[in-house]
Amino acid sequence: MASVSLSRREFLKIGSMAAGALALASCAAPTAAPEGEAEPTTAPAEEATAAPAVVEASVAKNDFEAAFEEVGRQWAGDKLVTPGGERDGHYSVCEKAAKRFTELTGIETVWELGAVTNTEKLWLDLASGSGTYDFSSFTYQYFSRWEAVKGLVDLEPYVSNPAFPPIDLSKHMPACLETYGKYKGTLYGIPTLADAMIYVYNLDHFAAAGLDPE
Q1: Is residue 214 part of a domain?
Q2: Which CATH number fits the domain that encloses residue 67?
Q3: Residue 160 lies in a domain
Q4: SS3 string of the chain?
Q5: What is the pLDDT of residues 29-86, one digit of tens each?
Q6: I need a surface site. Which of 42, 64, 144, 201 has the fewest CB within 10 A?
């Protein structure tokens, strides 16, 4: 049975991925310590003040929930805040995942829902440096924006942390993981869905212009 070191910050970053039902990039303002992609979304500037926790890798590697329960209970009562954005179909999935995460760990998750999108909330958080949010989900098109202001955290050290059953990234289609989870080769998020882009056009308009859309 191996012992591994896991700080409170590290656990909560990984926890944010579970609570968000995971396409989340870790986030928090540069001056704030989390307590989560999210995502999430900003890299913390300080080290955690809590002493690192030593946990026993006593659960089966495929027992993800048991690992969270074993490790997470030491921070029961803590809170993760995310700008949940608009209440839509995705929220119901996240809500169920967050509820289960709290049942396992005792860590509360707060989802701010409303007319304002989570992207707008994240920009305000970054601009003010308030460090309100711990993780968030967002679309991959924003990777360049967040990366430009050092608002992203490399998730690889957390995904591969031996204190938890590893997230099997090989289960993602390579192209999907590269597009939706990585930016410039760095893992910033865990994809939860992949969109399919289609174009709809009016054949009559093409015909009137003497063009063949095919």
Answers
A1: no
A2: 3.40.190
A3: yes
A4: CCEEEECHHHHHHHHHHHHCCCCEEECCCCCCCCCCCCCCCCCCCCCCCCCCEEEECCCCCCCHHHHHHHHHHHHCCCEEEEEEECCCHHHHHHHHHHHHHHHHHCCEEEEEECCCCHHHHHHHHHHHCCCCCCEEECCHHHHHHHHHCCCCCCCHHHHCCCCCCCCCHHHCCHHHHHHHCEECCEECCCCCCCCCCCCCCCHHHHHHCCCCCC
A5: 333 334 444 444 444 444 444 433 444 444 455 566 887 788 788 889 999 888 875 5
A6: 201
Does residue 213 belong to any structural domain of this protein? no
Q: What is the pLDDT of residue 165?
A: 59
Number of domains, the chain? 1
Q: For the chain, which ranges sit under pLDDT 70?
A: 1-64, 85-91, 114-116, 164-166, 194
